[in-house]
Amino acid sequence: MKQHDVIISGLNMDLTDAIRNVVQAKVEKLFEHEDHIVRMRVELEYDAHQSTHQNEFIAKGHLEVRGNDHNAHAETDDLYKSIDEMVNKLDRMLRRRSRLQKVKRKNTHVIDIPAEIPKAV
Predict the structure, then answer these.
(1) pLDDT tens digits, residue range 104-115?
(2) In this structure, what CATH number is given to the domain that contains residue 30?
(3) Which of 7, 21, 32, 74 has a beta carbon 3.0–4.6 Å from 41's, enabling a disulfide?
(4) Domain residues for 61?
């Protein structure tokens, strides 16, 4: 399996090798669905300044593909759960994009050429 380059950054937290390996393993699923991914950035954040102790870990994903880019974020009290939810959101976006492209290919528009245009011989 080819390892794709994924930019991983952390805010207010240290990124360990275990966290990097988990993110890399989860993100590989996205590269299997779409061949034309230009770049993938993952930003992991720990928000310690919230008044309640819920939703402290934030995972943000930015997926650059041909056309419109896809952004997703997830906030939970567990870092690994946030990563899972963010990857699932990006996966759904890619599947929807693929499905819409297939529908667009099947529904081609018929060009109606009027009869008064002379045809070249």
Answers:
(1) 666 666 666 666
(2) 3.30.160.100
(3) 7
(4) 7-105
Query: What angle is formed at CA 89 by the lines to CA 88 and CA 90, rounded to 5 degrees?
Result: 90
Query: How many domains in the chain?
Result: 1
Q: What is the pLDDT of residue 1?
A: 38
Ordered DSSP codes for 56-78: -EEEEEEEEESSS-EEEEEEESS
* Token duo for residue 82: 């946030």
Among 69, 76, 86, residue whose Cα is nearest residue 23 = 86
Closest C-alpha among 69, 93, 89, 70 to residue 81: 89
Q: Distance (Å, rounded) from C-alpha 95 to C-alpha 116? A: 45
Residue 44 lies in a domain: yes
The verdict on residue 116 lying in a domain is: no
Long-range contacts of 1-5 (CB under 8 A, 24+ apart): 1/28, 3/28, 4/28, 4/31, 4/37, 4/40, 5/39, 5/40
Helix axis angle for 17-33 and 79-106, nearest 10°, is 10
